[in-house]
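Hi V.,

You were right to ask for the full record rather than a summary. Here it is.
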Amino acid sequence: MFDILPSRSGRVIACGHRGHSVDGHENTRPSLRRAAELGASLCEIDLRITRDGRLVVFHDDILDNASTGAGLISQTDYAEIAELRTKNRNGIAIEGQPIEPFEDVLAYCRDLGLALIVEIKDKFEGVVYLEQVVRLLKEAGMFERVLISSFDYVVLRDIKRLAPGIRTMGINYHRLVEPAAAARSATMDVMNTDYPQFASDIAESLHAAGVGVSHYVPPPQHFALRRAYGFDYLDLLQSHMRAGLIDMLVCDDVAWIVDFIKNSGLTPTRLKFTK
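Predicted structure:
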């Protein structure tokens, strides 16, 4: 198990959002490999289920925006998806990659030495979906290297009931009145708050409850015009980090986020695992 509260020792986890996806194809081997090369210890990936019940690593519910295919993944068999290739949703012309089964990506990241945040995107009934997730994690030897994440806190509660010991991360878009109570309701280990909803009281409440604090931020160009207008969120973010309020930064641009952590006077955490 890796430390989910590294802020206690002046460290921060650098997490690649869908890998290092800012200039490549998200949720693919090249994006994950590049994230590791640039200093990420952890990457976030997304799960979808095909019509014939295979879990694949892909963000959208439809194939149209980020692949050479079209239609709903949930209405497409894996054999058809296996023939497709990814495409960059921002129009960058680079070689397409396969849309891979979850188990293959798990094995690849295990061998890279990467831990993972696995975001469950689908809506489903019952526990069969979650049982398959847990089984594949254990078969790949990745059970202790993974955080299961979701916007659906019921999913987080249910997978922890199904697999005691698994660790989870809730995704939050809001300024919560009682962040720790929300975390406890789902028995989550980490809570992620996206920019710009992050606030110091959220982090303080979570840390007091022993819950890790993650923060997603857009790439730096998002902030350039705002800085020109006199609003410097990145300066504020560095003050939060120096105060020990953040355990993990998540970004599409791993190179930038690693440098940002170092320039804040902190150390990017390197997670070490035995293969």
